[in-house]
Amino acid sequence: MAKSREPELTQLGRLVAHLPLDPQLARLLLFGYALRCFNPIVNLVAILSEIHVVTLAVGDEKQAAQSARDSFAHRDFSDHLMILRAFTAYSACGNNEPALTKLCKDKYLSGNTLRMVHGIR
Predict the structure, then answer these.
(1) pLDDT tens digits along 4-21
(2) Which of 5, 73, 96, 99 is the most exposed place for a label (fewest CB within 10 A)?
(3) Nearest one of 32, 47, 39 to 82, comparing CA atoms
(4) Integer-rounded Cα radius of gyration of the chain
(5) pTM of the model
């Protein structure tokens, strides 16, 4: 009877194992580096490692919140690109607290989460 071999990690698996991230996010980060699009991927990984960037609206605000999200979607139906655009808009405000507060309120974004992601980044 043949002896079964223990499964071995691939080279990519070994790299992923060294990163303190969910394996899917670690792979995304490594592929972003390999494909020379590291900056937006770092932003995306930082965002996806947090729970909520877009806040949920209730009642009468649901339609306004959906319209705000759609303003970041640009008709490409990609949640990841929408979140990156929201983060880019947040980052563009710099340290202007009134502008950050207004953006988050108007676009139904979580200021606390975006501040944390910006700090991670």
Answers:
(1) 788 888 999 999 999 999
(2) 5
(3) 47
(4) 19
(5) 0.74
Beta-carbon contacts of residue 22 (< 8 Å; ≥ 6 apart): 49
Domain ranges of the chain: 21-120
- How many CA atoms, within 13 angstroms, populate the side-chain half-sphere of residue 24? 3
Instruction: Name the residue type at position 37.
Output: C
Convert 42-66 to b/e letters by CB count within 10 Å (16 or more is b).
bbbbbbbeeeebbbeeeeeeeeebe
Among 88, 84, 82, 90, residue whose Cα is nearest residue 106: 90
Residue 66 binned pLDDT confidence (cut-offs 50, 70, 90): confident
Token look-up 């983060």 returns 87
* CA 47 from centre of chain: 3
Spatial distance between the Cα atoms of 22 and 76, rounded to a whole number of angstroms? 26
